[in-house]
């Protein structure tokens, strides 16, 4: 009986929660070079999770979700970063289940660059973090908390300038003569884009840098450049913005001004939270509407437990009126 309780709670959630799911990679098999820390949900698990949600919640388009007066009982599927696995292995699941989704792209990979988070994962997977940090300190005064043990997490903080870090990553890769020809984990060829009624594409900035680590001018370059690239692709575009990393400190007032300047009508956090009924969005200093989303677990049983925990935490936030 105990094991049936989470399932029962999850089925009843449609009465008082809504969900925005955040997927990244959907590889059947992840390359050893980037396996470390990559959020990956295999196609078979993706199918199980979305099929279960579709049985109890209503699947809706991301822009329709933001505009809906009542969001209760709805769910939205999003994919960030434009991993090739979505186009090759994830989309067939979307198509089979007939569930709309939004794919948030970073234009730098389409322009032939390597996604900088995959460079970070490469260093970790190949035990090169210590060597890179020695190289880094020769050219910069890095965050004092940045060390081998905290490397992955600290490179996602505003105290580390993403642009500067990525520049030094490129220099280190060149110095080590690391062959990057096989670093084709994210979309590179715009001809591989799938144009389908079930897919909307959105802005995730050009390089996926932490916006609050950049100057306002650099932030505008990231948002404008990617907006222009997306428009040039001739795809259906969402007017919801996907903030890289999606934490409270990962954007600032300059980010909000720029999102509004370029016509975005809302944005998403990524703090592993669900949205509780009657919430009008996340309370923030930014005047744009914003909602929470979460990264689903990599296996179905863990996903079910995750939903239960988030439901209780969501109720607590609502009761105690937390942001």
Explain how this protein is built.
The chain is α/β, with parallel strands linked by helices and 323 residues long. The chain folds into two domains: 4-112 and 185-319, Alpha-Beta Barrel (TIM Barrel), CATH 3.20.20.370; 116-175. The protein has twelve helices and nine strands. The protein has helices spanning 4-12, 43-56, 62-67, 84-97, 107-110, 116-125, 129-139, 151-154, 162-175, 216-232, 253-261, 300-319; strands at residues 17-23, 58-59, 74-80, 101-105, 199-203, 240-242, 266-268, 275-276, 290-291. The strands form two sheets. Strands 1, 2, 3, 4, 5 and 8 form a six-stranded mixed beta sheet that branches. Strands 6-7-9 form a three-stranded parallel beta sheet. Helix 11 (253-261) links the parallel strand 6 (240-242) and strand 7 (266-268). The longest helix is centred in the C-terminal third of the chain and has 20 residues, at 300-319. The protein is globular and about 55 Å long. It starts with a helix and ends with a helix. The model has no long low-confidence stretch (mean pLDDT 93).
Task: Name the descriptors.
TIM Barrel, three-stranded parallel sheet, six-stranded mixed sheet, 323 residues
* Overall mean confidence score, pLDDT: 93
Alpha-carbon distance between the two ends: 35 Å
Proportion of beta-strand residues: 5-15%
Under CATH, the topology of the largest domain can be stated as TIM Barrel
Provide the domain count: 2
Taken from the alpha-carbon principal axes, the silhouette is: globular
Proportion of residues in helical segments? 40-55%
Q: How many helices in DSSP terms?
A: 12
Q: Mind describing the biggest β-sheet?
A: 6 strands, mixed
Helix/strand-derived class? alpha/beta
- The helix/strand series, from N terminus to C terminus, equals HEHEHEHEHHHHHEHEHEEEH
Q: Please identify which CATH superfamily of the largest domain we are dealing with.
A: Glycoside hydrolase/deacetylase
Strand segment count? 9
Q: What's the CATH class of the largest domain, please?
A: Alpha Beta
Based on the coordinates given, report the CATH architecture of the largest domain: Alpha-Beta Barrel
Return Rg in Å. 19 Å
């Amino acid at each position: 009986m105990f094991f049936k309780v989470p399932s029962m709670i999850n089925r009843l959630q449609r009465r008082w929660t809504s969900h925005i799911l955040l997927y990244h990679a959907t590889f059947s098999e992840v390359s050893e070079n980037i396996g470390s820390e990559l959020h990956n949900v295999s196609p078979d698990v993706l199918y199980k999770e979305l099929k279960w949600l579709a049985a109890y919640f209503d699947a809706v388009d991301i822009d329709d979700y933001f505009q809906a007066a009542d969001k209760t009982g709805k769910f939205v599927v999003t994919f960030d970063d434009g991993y090739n696995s979505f186009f090759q292995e994830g989309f067939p699941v979307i198509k089979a289940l007939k569930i709309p989704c939004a794919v948030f792209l970073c234009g730098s990979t389409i322009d032939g660059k390597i996604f900088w988070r995959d460079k970070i994962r490469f260093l970790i997977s190949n035990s090169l973090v210590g060597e890179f940090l020695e190289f880094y300190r020769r050219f910069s005064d890095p965050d004092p908390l940045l060390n081998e043990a905290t490397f992955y997490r600290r490179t996602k903080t505003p105290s580390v300038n993403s642009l500067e870090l990525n520049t030094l990553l490129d220099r280190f890769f060149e110095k080590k003569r690391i062959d990057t020809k096989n670093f084709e984990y994210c979309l590179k060829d715009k001809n591989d884009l799938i144009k389908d009624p079930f897919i909307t594409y959105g802005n995730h900035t050009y390089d996926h840098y932490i916006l609050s680590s950049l100057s306002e001018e650099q932030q505008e370059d990231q948002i404008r450049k990617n907006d222009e690239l997306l428009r040039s692709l001739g795809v259906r575009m969402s007017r919801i913005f996907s903030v890289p990393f999606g934490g409270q400190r990962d954007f600032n007032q300059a980010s909000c001004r720029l999102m509004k300047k370029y016509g975005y009508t809302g944005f998403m956090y990524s703090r592993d939270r669900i949205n509780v009924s009657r919430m009008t969005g996340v309370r923030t200093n930014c005047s744009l509407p914003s909602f929470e989303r979460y990264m689903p677990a990599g296996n179905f049983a863990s996903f079910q437990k995750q939903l239960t925990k988030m439901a209780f935490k969501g109720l607590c936030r609502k009761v105690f009126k937390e942001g």
